[in-house]
Amino acid sequence: MQFMVMRRADEATEAGRLPAPAVFEDMGQFHEKLAEAGGVGLALGLRPSSRAVRLKLWPGGESLTDGPFAEAKELIAGFTVFEADSKEHAIALLKQWPASDADATGEAVLELRETGCPGGCAQVPPAAAGEDARYLILLRSDEGTEADRIPPQAMLDALNAFNAEQAAQGRLLAGDGLKASARGARVRKLAGGEASVIDGPFAEAKELIAGFWMIRAGSMADAVSWARTLPYPTGPCVEVEIREAMTMADVQPAIDAAQRQLDASLRAEQLDAALRRVNVEA
Asked: Which pTM does this prediction carry?
């Protein structure tokens, strides 16, 4: 089974503060565990909502709201798609989420959701973006998606055809739906390592995500224009949040710091070993 874990935003992520170098190392090891358990697909961090917009569409009109958005805990800071044998297996894996990730605010809240959409819309497998910017169009949930209501076949056919064409053009890089939160759970990981679990469903439907598209775009305005053209399976009234994906340039300083820390630790170990050899020989 395939799942998505969404790391909920907090004050630190919304302020754009990068995790400490040790967190990057711990998260790398955690993703290795996920890979060993079943496999890891798309994994992304998102820039703060100060660089995001919300687009509402309805017949004959629309509204566009610039971030930042005040309700930090209702936002996501990033997500990972991975394989697990069952929901229980997925939760067991998430309980091993690095406790160091919660150091900045005292906790890390993880939302687990099963991927896929009612009616069987086609998944768009991840494709490389190269050097181009990536934007996420996050579809907000409603009563229909939370009930796993199957859209009319004509809507699914239109969406699948649109996705296939955009993927062939290299514009659409990934996409999938998320099943109702009744199939999901939330894991709260504390800085000390303790983890608690709450099973879905979750009442706040409009704060949940029902699916996503990742596209290559030159700017936020370009991403918004693309989002207007989507034949959403939940239409005609739709709300999406459009977010920028983090790039390697965003995280490189922290990765470099982690590498410097690792190099310093390795040099210290080598020096200690050398001193022990000298003492033994003496």
From this structure: 0.86
